[in-house]
Design goal:
By secondary structure, the protein is an all-alpha fold. It folds into 2 domains: 3-23 and 183-242; 28-179. It contains 12 helices and no strands. The termini are close together.
Length: 260
């Protein structure tokens, strides 16, 4: 597919999303809206994201919201406290409302990420972590995906890391330097939508780390010079896949052919 035609399809997809034609009135992270305070938002989003894999995102964030609302368990979202507490106490706090599903691995990951955050600056919180990287995505990637990768299990992985950057921007108002470096977070729906658009072959649907890298690279090249960062397309593409790939529409009355 020629780049011009591809970008036209992307513009139609973005228009459908803006008009509410793809659903998505409620996204998983919206479960926190009106519940989490501004001061706690970065910690809740970051630690919650550290377990955001191989489960329903809606179920995860609903569990996070219940845990935050419970005064007996809210402390688990404070990085320094979670890093220094007894692991059994953390396990109980995370399991009470099913934020953690695995009895050992999940609390261990949570505590390790909390320690990585707490050891990043004198502030001992997520804002300190971001400030230590000067809100520069290139610096943050180098820190979390290379130099200190072992301190941020799962959160440092390409899929979760890039979506985490997007979530902090969207829900916590973080202003990034080098925003164009936020690559698309290639989960199952993104892979399916990418194939549906004809940007990659069906070979990427195996979903390996290499398949996700190929997908991210393809999106970066396809959107170069368009004014869109790859992550800008993430939610429309994700919703398009979840909705069963409805046909494109350019206005309220005209139906277009499907992408492929």
């Amino acid at each position: 597919m020629q780049k011009t035609a591809f970008l036209e399809n992307i513009n139609r997809l973005m228009q459908m999303y803006a008009e509410g034609r793809l659903g998505g009135e409620t996204m998983p992270e919206d479960a926190l809206t009106g519940i989490v305070s501004r001061d706690d938002c970065l910690g809740v989003l970051t630690l919650g994201m550290s377990l955001n894999y191989q489960r329903s995102a809606y179920a995860l964030w609903q569990a996070v919201a219940r845990t935050y609302q419970d005064e007996d368990t809210r402390w688990v979202f404070h990085p320094l406290t979670a890093a220094e507490c007894d692991l059994d106490a953390l396990r109980q706090g995370l399991h009470k409302h099913r934020v953690a599903l695995q009895p050992n691995r999940h609390p261990e990951i949570w505590q390790k990420v909390a320690a990585g955050i707490a050891h990043s600056s004198e502030k001992r919180d997520v804002s300190g972590l971001l400030e230590s990287a000067h809100f520069d995505i290139a610096e943050l990637k180098s820190m979390m995906q290379t130099k200190r990768k072992a301190e941020f299990p799962y959160l440092s992985g390409p899929k979760i890391f890039n979506y985490w950057l997007y979530v902090l921007e969207t829900y916590a108002g973080v202003k990034w330097k080098s925003r164009e470096l936020i690559t698309i977070a290639a989960d199952t729906h993104i892979l399916q939508g990418t194939v549906r658009l004809g940007l990659c072959s069906a070979n990427i649907l195996k979903g390996s780390a290499e398949d996700r890298r190929i997908t991210a690279d393809a999106w970066e090249k396809a959107l170069a010079g368009s004014g869109l960062a790859p992550i800008d397309v993430h939610t429309p593409l994700w919703l398009w896949s979840r909705a069963g790939f409805p046909r494109l529409v350019t206005d309220s009355s005209e139906m277009q052919e499907e992408f492929v």
